Amino acid sequence: MxxxxxxxxxxxxxxxxxxxxxxxxGVAVTVVERMASAGGKLRxxxxxxxxxxxxxxxxxxxxxxxALFESLGERLEDHVGLIxxxxxxxxxxxxxxxxxxxxxxxxxxxxxxxxxxxxEARGFDGFRAEAARIxxxxxxxxxxxxxxxxxxxxxxxxxxxxxxxxxINPFQTLAKALEKHFRDPRLLQLYGRYxxxxxxxxxQATATLMLIAHLEARGVWLIDGGMHKVAQAIAGLxxxxxxxxxxxxxVTEIRVAGGRAAGVVLAGGEVLPAxxxxxxxxxxxxxxxxxxxxxxxxxxGVKPADRSLSALVTMMTAEAEGFDLDRHNVFFSNDxxxxxxxxxxxxxxxxxxxxxxxxxxxxxxxxxxxxxxxQLIVNAPPTGDGRAPTPGEIAACxxxxxxxxxxxxxxxxxxxxxxxxxxxxxxLFPSTGGALYGRASHGWRASFRRPGSRSGLPGLWLAGGxxxxxxxxxxxxxxxxLASAAILSARASTRTFHPMATAGGTLMQKATTAxxx
Length: 517
Fold this sequence. Notes:
By secondary structure, this protein is of the alpha/beta class. It has helices at about 15-25, 60-70, 105-115, 120-145, 150-155, 160-165, 175-180, 185-190, 210-215, 230-240, 285, 295-300, 335-345, 390-405, 420-430, 475-495, and strands spanning about 5-10, 30-35, 45, 50-55, 80-85, 85-90, 100, 220-225, 245, 250-255, 260-265, 270-275, 275-280, 310-320, 330, 355-360, 370-380, 410-420, 460. Mean pLDDT is about 95; it is low at about 495-505 and about 510-515.
């Protein structure tokens, strides 16, 4: 194995994007993954012989993935079946009210007006404008750029842009900021849910998270075959550029020589030397010493109190009756503040949960005959490595989950079920407690506390949802591209390697493949 190679620990989306970019630049890359296939959280589980997607279900920011493939001379659509969805999601409450939101903002505005009145439709206009302003202010200065401090971000805005910087509303909570735009409690609940997209409570998360609404408004796609196909496509892209993948290989130590990361040791004792090591795992796994003392000193972990949401996720095949489901459906609880108080303050499963239902065989006018594939998600505390929910508590939450669906008119008759709780997520992603999004985005400082691509140990780099720029499939992809650019830039600066691609700075020009909403 060449000494100027890069070893990537973990074949999650960040590691896969980095592998493709580095291999495309002529670097020898080996991806070491302890699971049996690529994808990390983009995975499936077997429900009585049926593969059901068990991870992220929404595909957005298509331009990020198009840019990756185009940079290597290929097209995303040649490897992934993409179906544009006109509907963002279907929402329901126990009082019988329902609201569909659409990619077309005019259609959403009309739907909100019919649902809650003309004043709330006007409120949607203001909310949409603020979400777009926040997104446009941060897309290139923060998300596509290397990690920085608050002062560094201010420098990116410049003296003339300080007003724009503060307009991203970092000091107000999302729940409070929404009150400027909406009065209807159902809309406050619906748009507050954007905090959960990165594992936070709307009552503690910064209002900056409004930008997620603008991201969705730029397009949502369904993936033919399921979201795990995205990971498979990027792994294939990396392999075609020469990257090597080793599955079922568990890294137990990051080796250090000459004061820098110099390779990894596998569980069986095999040593793989490397010029650089990229850890595509939760930063807390490094900080907890799971990869050795030197790596632990190089990274700060997340305290249990600062962790993001975990979840009680149930994959199933079932017969569905009553409620007319779309691909993405949200059934809201009657007491949203209590739900998050129980999760984040009391560290317990919610007694009356909101429920996300992904009907994986629906959307774009399709519906499977017979039993369908479903993923149900209930937010949960990240206590999988401590006082995890007991079997009795999980059973009670499942009962409450089905009762919530029943109140909204949906009856599911399961054929096969596979539940995953916070303790199981901790086993899959160690040192997280089952937290699925790294650090919770609570307070304006939280985003600046995520580690960047460069660790405190030379030659050890970071990518993934716990690193900058944050959680979610698009942000994890950007973290991998930022890490690969940083590695190439460091090698170029020491003249040990001549990169074939430009590194550093922002990752891409402003996308022209998707219209701003």
